[in-house]
């Protein structure tokens, strides 16, 4: 594995923002995939996304006003609909005004699914990995979302996300597990749309978090973990007749910055009562991942040749195979063919 990362996939949906952080009439500026983007919600409640640059003099639209219907540029008052189409240029007399429908700010396709706003940056959304819909949670929104910035590329952040062996060493905490609890693991994997799935299995016996969940909700019915391009992972847990799901999304901000959003869903009312206790644990968990990714950059800046060895690193190798196949399929204008085959992986954690 080369220490240098490959560019992020553009023909893909990326998680941009939790729905709850975008109210009607609001605009939120963000840098995504190295591009300035403004995300807004019109007075009807529909989310939209535009390039955050006025086509007149290049000033960011975020400095202007948005009344829920139109964005007014602060510099010369040019107005734009949420679609990006110009609706008025007040500084021009009527005889000088062009056909306004030809004056546009670039817009991005947007989907709002299960409390998350997703943006598409490419040209062919019909061939892209779909925005995931968490089974059994249709119509639900997350009970909490933790957002954090990683000082690392999308590739190295994804490799950390799918790494099954680091938890024992990075996430050492009384509420998770101890290095002394390390044991052999064997999990069955199967290909799934644009990714792979750790087939439903009993929860880890050496995880205190799972033990607490079983104590609160009852008999565990199994855990399934799904990874999907470009950087989406969700862990779907059935326990005591309820569902708990952890959705983790990685979105490249710049070449060496990646935003992680960790959304947690559940159907058990007792977990809602305990939500204030979950926040510090979730932030601690992500902070540990953030810190090790940041430390990793100190070595990567020397561009070492990296070794991916044995079953613990198979999922990392799968990620690069999936990404390469997706790029080739797009270039050759053909359907994506999943290169992953069913197999059982073994490691210690």
TrEMBL record:
Question: Signal peptide: which range, if any?
Answer: none
Q: What is this protein called?
A: (2Fe-2S)-binding protein
Q: Which PANTHER family match?
A: 3-KETOSTEROID-9-ALPHA-MONOOXYGENASE, OXYGENASE COMPONENT, IRON-SULFUR DOMAIN CONTAINING PROTEIN
The keyword Iron appears for this protein: yes
Annotated Rieske domain ranges read: 14-119
What keywords tag this UniProt record?
2Fe-2S, Iron, Iron-sulfur, Metal-binding, Oxidoreductase
Species of origin: Aliidongia dinghuensis
* Gene Ontology molecular function, alphabetical: 2 iron, 2 sulfur cluster binding; metal ion binding; oxidoreductase activity
